[in-house]
Amino acid sequence: MAIFYRLLGFLKPYKRGLIASTLFAAGAMVMTVLLPLLTGRAVEEINAGSTGPGAHDAAKHSQDLKALMTVALIIVAVSLVRWGLAYARRMVAGRISLGIEYDLRELMYGHLQKLELSFFDRQQTGQLMSRVTVDLQAVRFFLGYGLVFILQSALTILLAAAVMIALNPGLGAIAIAPVPFVVVIANLYGRRARPAVQETQQRIAELTAEAEESISGVRVVKAFAREGHQLARFRRSVGRVFDQAMVATRIEATYNPIIAFLPQLGHSAVLLIGGEAVIHSHLSLEHFTAFYFLLNMLIAPMRMLGVTLGMAQRATASGARIFQVLDRAPQLTDPADAVSLPAGRGEIELRDVSLAYEAHVDELAVVEGLTEPEEGGAADGAPGRAAEGGGTDGASGRAAEGGGTDGAPGRAAEGSPRPSSDGSPRVPVNARPPVLRHMDLHIHAGERVAIVGGTGSGKTSLVSLLPRLYDVTGGALLIDVDDVRRLRLSELRRAIA
Questions:
Q1: DSSP at 52
Q2: Contact call for residues 462 and 439 (beta carbons, < 8 A)
Q3: What is the DSSP string of 243-292?
């Protein structure tokens, strides 16, 4: 529920629109409730005109026809008003939905821009894309339409129940008797559906990542004739999505028919008991007709409760995945006492510098306790997750554990460590062997230095330390006598760029 309440926080800028949409929905529901009452009145006029005294009298016939025409015109007017209110509600709800989508996209993109490079090193692009597309759509659709639909359904049930009880308390109680059972079944459905839907969303993200990596590395796939291997991997990912989607479908298929069936019990009881009451003149045909239409109006929201709950479960599961990214705090930030870049000449000094990357941990593979085993690494230069220990030069996707090209972390490196409280470097937890060890280097202003070395020797890692794309895990890197960790990141990177 905590995630659900957090999702409701995105509605705060749209309070007025939400209130207006709710009021329009309430007005439309009042008009909808009036229609059965007017229909019952029309049926009563028809019955009175055909069976009452003077049924064949021309004057009486003309009077009955006029009364019937009046009721018919009122029904048309009420229907037009309901149409106008429904149109206004949908327009306002659509604006809210699109506004939430705009806000979420901006928030997600802005936060991703703040995260350090090492975060993207260990995340699949497809995982992030899935969160800013599929998950975001599920959230915005529920907040924009689904939530108002739930309120509208609840109001429909309350209004219809109140009018039925007012018409006939006993028959009304029979009609709404299944409602508590529907609520209990719907609650059980929600408990079982949410983990299944959440896992489905996660596997869809993995499938998206698989497709993205395969397409971006298509040249390597073709160069090494790995089309069959990649197709087999993709087929496995599709199969995993299918299997998990079937789990969610089985849960839905179990509970939704029950939710739809329970209101029919009340419907059958009303037809039996109410019909008998009309036969014995204990209930007027007008009230019975109105009661019947009100009951039908009550059934639809209860029947749709399962669909609405499914929408809410998908939105909650997607919200958990979105908040997983938004709650990830940047690790490379300006210190509290950050200083401006000095007006120096650009002298660079490395003092006993070491750099080690953390072991690979895919933060986005875990959502509220749901974990998925990682697929085997790609082989022979195929894109995707490379095998631990090494990868093929030029391969697309995640670089090998233990270092990418020129010592760069590639796609497997864990993020840069944050300095300890005393400002000294902190060795990352589960660090792999250092790619740079106790390195000293002094480059004077204006001096040109060539860094030469074999693949994986640490050239790219060394250069990445200058703009603080990663932080040293030992020693210090100084620019014009100032430690780069004390400088404002934006100024430092702007000067180097």
A1: S
A2: yes
A3: HHHHHHHHHHHHHHHHHHHHHHHHHHHHHHHHHHHHHTTSS-HHHHHHHH
pLDDT digits (tens, 9 = 90+) for 224-262: 888 888 899 999 999 999 999 999 899 988 888 888 888
pTM of the model: 0.64
Label residue 445 exposed, middle or buried (CB < 10 Å: 0-12, 13-18, 19+): exposed
CA-to-CA distance for 220 and 393, rounded, in angstroms?
A: 10
Q: Whose structure tokens read 């998908």?
A: 314
Cβ distance 44 to 284 under 8 Å?
A: yes
Residue 197: predicted pLDDT: 83
Rounded Cα gap, residues 435 and 457, in angstroms: 7
**Residue 145 in this model has a pLDDT that exceeds 70:** yes
d(C-alpha 378, C-alpha 80), whole Å: 62
The rounded distance, in Å, linking the Cα atoms of 50 and 56 is 8
Question: Long-range contacts: 109-112, Cβ < 8 Å, 24+?
Answer: 111/325, 111/326, 111/328, 112/325
Residue 46 has which token pair?
């028809």
Contact 323, 165 (CB under 8 A): no
Please report which helix (H) or strand (E) contains residue 298, including its range.
Answer: helix 285-303
- Measured in degrees and rounded to the nearest 5, phi and psi for residue 242 equal -60, -45
